[in-house]
Design a protein that fits this description.
Order of helices and strands: HHHHEEEEEEEEEE
Number of helices: 4
Helix content: 25-40%
Structural class: alpha+beta
Bound molecules: zinc ion
Mean pLDDT: 70
Length: 242
């Protein structure tokens, strides 16, 4: 004989909210809710709290995860770098790393036939200056480029330039991204007196995927760019050396 007069325990209410109650207990809890407005109001409060908690923890978890990934990408890049000068720079970068990026660019490279979108929400909190980014995917038809041999896996996506201060004295640099099987990070308006930064491109999902390039001046152009060859589809971040 069950005692319906006993109030529900917090554990029972949480299990009820999360749908974890076994059938036998569920019946008893539902009967209690039908009779007891006190437990119903506690359950309502807990439900609101739980929803708020889940939202908060998804955002916080995402942020902490990305910070950990940035950290790991810098360590991995420094460890596997074979160019001694770049290795030294990566080690210094790693040593002075504050957990916030000076410039952070989110890249989603899509596989043929799949849809993708650029996700930049929440990245502001990971950037040193709190800059806001607005990118737009600009698909370019291959036919219009007259490249018949581009291959079925090639999809060109251009991202609208974002303006950013790359150094205190420079003009606003414009960052553009392009894909042609490769990922090209292009910076317009980069001051030629500045030391070109290294750029670490790394996958958000796959720890094995990270590459380092130095921003270099393009031939026959005032632009600077970093060219990452044969980047598989995925979700990437490009991190600029401070
Ligand atoms: Zn009750």
């Amino acid at each position: 004989m069950e005692n319906f007069d006993r109030h529900l325990s917090p554990e029972e209410i949480i299990d009820y909210i999360e749908g974890k109650l076994p059938a036998g207990n569920l019946r008893r809890v539902e009967i209690h809710f039908a009779r007891c407005s006190e437990c119903v109001s506690i359950a309502r409060e807990m439900q609101l709290l739980q929803q708020a908690w889940q939202t908060w923890s998804a955002e916080e978890h995402g942020k902490i995860y990305l910070q950990a990934r940035m950290n790991a990408a810098l360590i991995a890049a420094a460890e596997k770098e074979e160019n001694p000068e770049w290795k030294e720079r990566l080690l210094q970068w790693r040593a002075s790393w504050s957990g916030k990026a000076r410039v952070l660019v989110n890249i989603v490279k899509r596989a043929p036939g799949s849809t993708s979108k650029l996700i930049s929400e929440g990245l502001e909190s990971l950037m040193a200056g709190g800059e806001e980014w607005e990118f737009e995917l600009l698909p370019i038809s291959l036919a219009s480029r007259g490249e018949e041999d581009a291959g079925p896996e090639t999809q060109v996506v251009k991202i609208k330039a974002a303006e950013v201060d790359l150094s205190p004295q420079s003009r606003k640099a414009q960052i553009q991204l392009e894909w042609e099987g490769d990922v090209i990070v292009r910076v317009k308006n980069f001051s030629p007196t500045e030391k070109p930064p290294l750029i670490v491109l790394f996958s958000k999902e796959n720890e094995m995927r990270s590459w380092v390039k130095e921003l270099t001046k393009e031939k026959d152009s005032a632009d600077f760019s970093a060219h990452f060859a044969r980047v598989p589809p995925g979700n990437y971040l490009a991190l600029f050396e401070p």
